[in-house]
Design a protein that fits this description.
Length: about 100
């Protein structure tokens, strides 16, 4: 390679480099646009999914409240003291009423 050939190749390589850089940036721009569109549609799909889950939970919530209400009344019955004649009387006093400390 002589100096004259190098003088001819420099502008050609520079033009090719500029074309490559131009195409590469256009490709990246297109890629970013597609990514933005995909994020928008996936965000809408995610929002629809969340709304569906919320509606299912709200539907189940009424069923759960009914079941919990029945279980709670059964549990409250278990915690109540049995009805005996002693429980209807007044509580016994710990000390004699006449003495004070």
């Amino acid at each position: 390679m002589n100096a004259e050939m190098l003088q001819i190749l420099i502008p050609i390589v520079a033009i090719l480099a500029l074309v490559f850089i131009w195409k590469w940036f256009k490709f990246k721009d297109k890629e970013l646009q597609l990514d933005a569109e995909m994020r928008k549609t996936s965000g809408q799909a995610l929002e629809a999914r969340v709304q569906r889950l919320e509606s299912v939970i709200l539907e189940l919530d009424s069923d759960l409240r009914a079941k919990l209400g029945a279980a709670r009344s059964l549990r409250n019955d278990l915690f109540e003291a049995p009805a005996t004649p002693e429980s209807s009387q007044a509580a016994p006093q710990l000390g004699s009423p006449g003495k004070s400390r």
